Amino acid sequence: MAATETSTATVPTLYTNTLRNAFGGVLSFFILLLIGVLAFSIRLFSVIKYESVIHEFDPYFNYRVTQFLTKNGIYEFWNWFDDRTWYPLGRVIGGTVYPGLTLTAGTIWWLLNSLNIPLSVETVCVFTAPIFSAFASWAAYLLTKEVKGAGAGLTAAALLAMVPSYISRSVAGSYDNEAVAIFALIFTFYLYIKTLNTGSLFYATLNSIAYFYMVCSWGGYTFIINLIPMHVLLCIVTGRYSSRLYIAYAPLVVLGTLLAALVPVVGFNAVMTSEHFASFLVFIIIHVVALVYYIKGILSPKMFKVAVTLVVSAGLAVCLAMIAVLIALVASSPTKGWSGRSLSLLDPTYASKYIPIIASVSEHQPPTWPSYFMDINVLAFLVPAGIIACFLPLSDASSFVVLYIATSVYFSGVMVRLMLVLAPAACITSGIALSQAFDVFTRSIKFQLPGVSSNAEVDAGETSSATAEAQNNVVKTEKTETSKDRPSRKSKKKEREHVEKPSTKAKAEKKRLLALPLEASFISLLLLVLLGAFYVVHCVWAAAEAYSAPSIVLTSHSHDGLHVFDDFREAYAWLRHNTDVDDKVASWWDYGYQTTAMANRTVIVDNNTWNNTHIATVGTAMSSPEKAAWEIFHSLDVKYVLVVFGGLVGYPSDDINKFLWMVRIGGGVFPHIKEPDYLRDGQYRIDSQATPTMLNCLMYKLSYYRFVETDGKGFDRVRRTEIGKKYFKLSHFEEVFTTHHWMVRIYKLKPPKNRIRGKTKKSKSKTSSTSSPRKSGTKKKNPWH
């Protein structure tokens, strides 16, 4: 009878829980759908306010490559040699580009056209980043759910959908590698945690495939292949080794490395560079530990000690041999097997000392404190709370999140571009913190609301755990009804029930003691809601104002209204329509991708920056006097020189502000270019106190030629001073085009003067200067004899 009553009582409870779980699943699905819509729509301000265009510099190269892929096919793409870049060297595109973004957008374009949706390649490229931002939010939900549950996952997904740091690289038109790479990064971490929690070889295989997609998409894949080994080593050291850890890591190293080597731009670097050596070392360590645990399970304690001695000795020998091989490989490289960007992360001063081309990029500079508040806003204050919540209790998954946030905080402090890596970690930890805080405050309110029985609340909280126990008791009772010792089983069951009742009351009392005062809970919830509202307002403002403007089209507001500066496209259109197809254009490397994509002209250097000597040659030409610069450009078969100048409209990112980096990069290869020659008492000046070297260099002349005609004074609105040299003429260059706002200026090299046969140097003697023309002519010698 007792069993029958228990089974009858559990049926409504099971039905209620099933209904509640089904409703919760449907509600979570619709919330995730709305989060995806939010992530997509908040990134459309650039299209709504401006137009559907590609942003920045690097996206134009990706757009051009995608156009080539969709027009010529995958095989032509892998074998494409681009002769319009890095003249006269050229570039093998298929072997030097991360193809993930291009293949993804090309596949989307092909699918849409197969479904008779005729979108242009440019449209697909513009909207690829917003689409994948929704995918990234869903991946953050899956990852956080594996760590701390569905509530924390939904909160993290909502935070990531709006975080300004991620919006800055994923607005509509930002067609860069990070557009798809952040999704691949989060999804790879999710599959690793999923494998760690389940021990499933299926998820381990998916994890390797996700890692392969990340390798195809972005060079930041080295962060994954170093962070996961760090976590595995942490688990081993802290005594948390398990078979699930082995299954999560070993297939990733083996299968993931094999797949990574298939990417042409990576190739054998997957096994030959120092960025990957940590994964191989931990791979050896985990096999030694797995062998030790296996031997421990099949041997007696005495034999185990002997076997461990042998295994550890053999393992140490293998590790030492492996380390010796790695040291030999590393020692043979001038950079010890590390790339320049990796060394810049390990040593923040390395780039400024040895590789100025890396240090010259603005996004490679360290961030300021206000940039953290700008890019992650209130998440900076929630991250510490989320880290504490990860320790309550500490699991393999939560320890990975702690390690992820710790490393990403360090790397973001070294390079402002890596704020993008910090954003998902900050959203995940902040989502955990907010979820835990809401749970505490709402539970405290439930315990103290008038008219609500605390016992009923406790019973409702314990229903899920008690149901499983009741089901087990029902099954056991039904099986033992025919046995002879039925009374003894019933008596044991009654004793167990008497023991469980006090424990349930103790749990209820403990929860009641942990509950916060009602007023404090309401105030705390209100503050959290206000904090969330402030975060939403800031994110919408950042998306609409700070990060939506494309660098190709600039705007400004004044008392006259809105002013649009479309000088870049004006200049590229002029080059496209007024120059020959084979003409070569020289500019600083920042504008190489745009010139090739929009003007369809051959450039000397571009944003790939793979050849430091070639860039230094252009920097030396810009830093040299006019005649020497003409000779350098003429030797490179250059016909036009393009400079960006912002002195008239106040555009700060012009070539004059970048000029010192041209000097440093050029001086790093050509020692006759010295930075102190361009500084007056250590200060960079363009006014009357500027040095003669500065006033006579090509960059100064091309920027300020005829500038005094604009206002009669030559006042530079960026440097806030009058220029030092106002009136001068160009002898080896001629101005052919200047845009409406003087932001882009294009000059043409004058042709070399014809050599006059029989002409010799003038005589230094005074008599030759006073002699008659006929007499001096008879003394000239033919230089060809």
Radius of gyration: 34 Å
Count, helices: 36
Question: Quick check: average pLDDT?
Answer: 84
Distance between the termini: 127 Å
Helix content: 55-70%
What is the second-level CATH architecture of the domain at 563-749? 3-Layer(aba) Sandwich
- Give a short account of the largest sheet: 5 strands, mixed
State the name of the first-level CATH class of the domain at 563-749: Alpha Beta
Strand content: 5-15%
Can you count the beta strands? Answer: 11
The strand order across the widest sheet is 6-5-7-11-10
Structural class: mainly alpha
Q: So what's the overall shape?
A: globular
Low-pLDDT sequence parts: 453-502, 759-785
> CATH topology of the domain at 563-749, which one?
Rossmann fold
Could you characterize what this model shows?
The chain is mainly alpha-helical and 785 residues long. Helices cover 65% and strands 5% of the residues. The strands form four sheets. A five-stranded mixed β-sheet has the order 6-5-7-11-10, with helices on both faces. Helix 28 (592-599) links the parallel strand 5 and strand 6 (602-603). The longest helix has 40 residues, at 2-41. It is globular, with a radius of gyration of 34 Å. The N and C termini lie far apart (127 Å). Residues 453-502 and 759-785 have low confidence and may be disordered. Residues 753-765, 776-785 have a biased composition (Basic residues). Residues 458-504, 753-785 are annotated as: Disordered. It is found in: Endoplasmic reticulum membrane. Pathway: Protein modification; protein glycosylation.
